[in-house]
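The aim of this short unit is practical: by the end, you should be able to scan a pair of folded records and say something sensible about each. We start with the first protein, listed as its amino acid sequence and then its structure tokens.
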Amino acid sequence: MTTFNESRRRFLGQSSLGLLGLTAVPNLARAMEGMGMHNRHTDEMTMPKITPNKASPNFHADVELDLFCKPNAIQILDGSKTNMLQYTARLIKGPKETLTSLPNSYLGDIIRFQKGQKVRINLHNGLSQPSVTHWHGLHVPQVMDGHPMYFIDPGETLVYEFEVVNRAGMNIYHTHQHGVTGKQVYFGLAGALIVNDDEEAALDLPSGEFEIPLVIQDKQFDSDNQLVYSSMMHSKMTGFTGDKILVNGRPNAHFDVSSRAYRLRVMNGSTSRIYKLAWDDGMPVTVIGVDGGLLEQPEVKSYVMLAPGERLDIWADFSGRNEGSELTLKSLAFAGVLPKMGMGMNKGVIPVGSEYPICRIRVTKKVSETHKLPMQLSKFKRYEISDTANPNNPLPIGISEAPMSMLLNGAPYSFNNPLPFERVKVGSIQQIEIFHAHGAGGMKMDEGAKHESGEMKRGGMGRGMGGGMMDLSMAHPIHLHGQQFQTVSRSFSGDSTAYDTVREGFIDSGLKDVVLVMPMERVKIIKPFQDFKGLFLYHCHNLEHEDMGMMREFSVE
């Protein structure tokens, strides 16, 4: 069931990082003693304070780097500099191409690892507040995953040590501090992490100057060029959105290219905004990869949806275009991702679902070089429903919204308090169904269905909604930590008028770690829980929703 080779299996088994259960976390048992009781009616809770992990003398790193998070003032708009939070990195050991900076950007350096490398990262907290870093997309042990219980206080250092076992793909590193993830990400604590491997290298895809990262974010600025981040309830409920679109930390972004093929590594780094990406001249969007790396074959779409935390690997062929020609990557109009009550509430921002430009591409050099798109890109392990431990009884992830409340499986976040069915066996392959649990298209209030692994009544989800609250329903990008998953199916019920504006934009053929679930939609996935025991989060990657408590844990045992 696992793709690990024997030497890697021995490494994980012998390392203190391998198969690490909650009870094995240093100092956790002591830290949990005397913890305050969690108030289940709020998203407030007390995290254990765990002594920060130190470097292991038995771990021999191929790559080591220092990663600093600290405040900085960055020139983004004309006039005053903008006060931001920023990751900066310093390579201690490893290939020089491990770190690449984005010019004039507040975003962290692009970190590039090779599959099989053993990596040590020393995270230094230079902020005035606690923080912790999550390696979004990487399959690592619990203690290395950036769970918020591993937060470090100002002045402290946390050491991450892990082997890179992921296939090639674009991942994210970002803060995961409980309750303020959205705010810390919004103010700059995020960056791209790219894994390369031999399978990808054999394809000879565009690289170097012909591989362009596009990290898309929206921000809102005041008259002094300082960031605005609202804590008002309507902004939390719908997600905070901005009045300017930035790419790689720059407004009105443009990129000069030659008339040849490029590889665009696209990331939605916004806290809540969903994009519908398309070329303004009607050129198809050719997708060669998603969150978990390359697809098996390219997919060609007229547009592609991109929710917060999702990534796209796009083949963009500008050959045949004349010098001086331009095209624009846009977000097209669409509907159905926001509740009716939320429409127009964030005044002055770019409306979600409207049409607007993302960045401009200018052909500045005519060349005769051609680069052929491979029709066979990759191979990866595919599971069938029959391979899962629960082929007839998927684990539920029920989404529900209510005024001042965002829930998964009927409950707000509660540290180390899994529901019975949120306990899964290490090494198992699980079928999971994600759905809206508060009315049409989701579970009815009176279903009262039970899951075989526990007594969770689905009729209990969405409590407090009331029959008149259906207008709250909105789209949610659900992120699951740990191994990436396959999307098996989508089903939709109800009036499809809004859904029809997005339904052709999903790329479900690749490995994912974020899946966008539209209102009245059910999505089935297959997710492995291999190699590591411990607590692994799943949550909405609308980060304002995460901070409101739309987050739970799987206890892998």
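Turning to the second protein, read its sequence before its tokens, just as you did above.
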Amino acid sequence: MKQVVQNYKSGELAVLDVPVPGCKPGGVLVRTTYSLISTGTELMKVSEAGMSMLGKARSRPDQVAKVMQSVATNGLPATYRKVMGKLDSYTPLGYSLCGVVEQVGAGIDDVKVGDLVACAGNEHALHAELNWVPKNLYTPVPDGLSPQHASFGTVGSIALQGVRQGEPQLGEVALVIGLGLIGQLVVQLLTAAGVRVVGADPDPSRCELAESLGAAACGDPGSAAVENAVMELTDGHGVDQVYLAAGGGSNQPVELAAHLARDRGRVIDIGKCRLDLPWNAYYEKELDVRFSRSYGPGRYDPEYELEGRDYPIGYVRWTERRNLACFLDLMARGRVDVGPLVSHVADFEDAVETYRRLKDGELKAVTALFRYPAAEVKPEAPKVTVPAVRRPAAQAAPARTGKSPVRLAFIGAGNYATSMLLPHLAQREGVSLSTVVTTTALSGANAQRKFGFARATTDLDAVLGDPSIDAVFVVTRHSSHADLTRRALLAGKTVFVEKPLALTEEELASVLATVEESGNDRLQVGFNRRFAPLLREAKAHLGARTGPASLRYLVNAGRLQQGSWYLQQGTEGSRFAGEGGHFIDTASWLLGADPVSVYAVAAAGNEDLQVVLRYPDGSTASIGYVTNGPGGFPKETLDLIADGKVLKLDDFVRASVYFDGTAGRKRWVSSRLPKARDKGQSAELASFVKAVRTGGPMPVPLESLVATTAATLAVQAALTGGAPVTLAVAR
């Protein structure tokens, strides 16, 4: 691909062929449509690069100070080599663009291939054909907003953050000093907020442009026109806010701000101008001087920008990304018009010549854009690999001898473990609850008291290293399942892990690699519905089938309480990633096969999904997973149709089978269960304990557990890619 670069030592500008960036997790690969040239920031950098070494030093005294500190620490020769090496390297240009998502990294679920996004950042929104952009530095472009205008997103966020720092109020009057790109945007934002604006700039054409975009009056900073306009609009009191959007080495903007601001007015520095504050003037008016840091909260924070960790909206309302989305929305609704600001659009291949013309003053532009050649996005057919199960040569966990009870350990004692698993095990004959491991001492003590564990501890290694423990239950948060399962398998334990087994393809592959490495394939995942007595009875009445089946499964999952850790998608996966394996496993068990492809679509604004699974014999299963249904409606309803027969399940309360026979239509209907719904946990645990005791086969084949987990992962891949995902079995 091609990218605009500059050598800071020589000042050379070039369009280089460079490798395409990889699409890392937590971000997207974007093909640029338009990128914006910052005629202020970028031209300043280009101009500095053309200076002599002395000129560079004078323009960046902060960097000179760092060099001197390095000399004192590392010596002159080492510092010289370091500085010259850095100067004599190509550096990128650009920080504001709009493009089309070409590839989606792991962990991204808010955009898909082909979506139009606006991107920010001087390391991620560069003048390049392709950029990898982390999650908090892009946002989808609203419908109806052109890519050309969406490329203003970053500079718009800078202006918007500056206005937020000024805290404008309806009816106030503001002075904007400097009517370049940022100044023009500040004028429009203030006008949209109900503030009357006076502009100051030595360029008459920029003053005229600002007045056409909403400014009440504009003029040269040194003229009487600006002061007269301020006095007239404020009854002689002075403006409420002054926005410094100018650059250069003159101290005039700072002095003018003090002269025209009212008593206790606010002065907000957005640009990079000289700031020698006249002490008396600022002191006597007790002016409030504020700085606006680039695009907003999150800027320069690597955990926010690179790792995608958002700030809670209750504490930080307007972050970098929210500012970006807000500015795009303002443009889409016509509150801000950037069309008049586009002075020049150049083809990307003419980038070097465009910079030269801008630097030499031959091309005068408030804003210039690069237009990139159109490229048809042809997304690869997505696929998820189903790791091959390679049986170990020597089987672990041979049949136990004697009549001693099966000794179990629990890792985790949260709500599911204490309500759905431990009550079935605490009184089971032939079972001994040996040890419970928790991260907090009190939760372990509570589980020990309620269920009779012999020991409670926070030491996981002591449990895995205890040879007397036969099996380990992993009932922790989703993000830890794969790792804890691997550790327990390596320790030679039989493992029961609650769903999901893994949250990524890499985690799933690592579990299978551990099985092969350790020779231990004694693994069960908590897919309990296939053990439900009512469903097993209904399946028996349905009987064998000869043709393909159609299965429909509606899951009325309901809303989660605010603060639930299930909502922590960044670390714990989506709700469907955590729970969906239940329904895929049930469908696959009823159909007697593993799926070969997965397709999924999502409703806008929530986690409602429609998932379609296809099976080798042509059977299909559709799973509707909804979170906003009424609480009084059954949680799970299922219909399976095949060979003129229908199996119906009503929320594990009643089941029925309808079929045509030689003696006419027949029907089997279960009796309504007298007690709580039995979703199979008790029978599942009984089967697991039996397998541990006898050394016999695990209740569910490992191949099925792996296939169900891979299909669950494929749902997210299908949502991201917008196409069916093939489940490709590794060879």
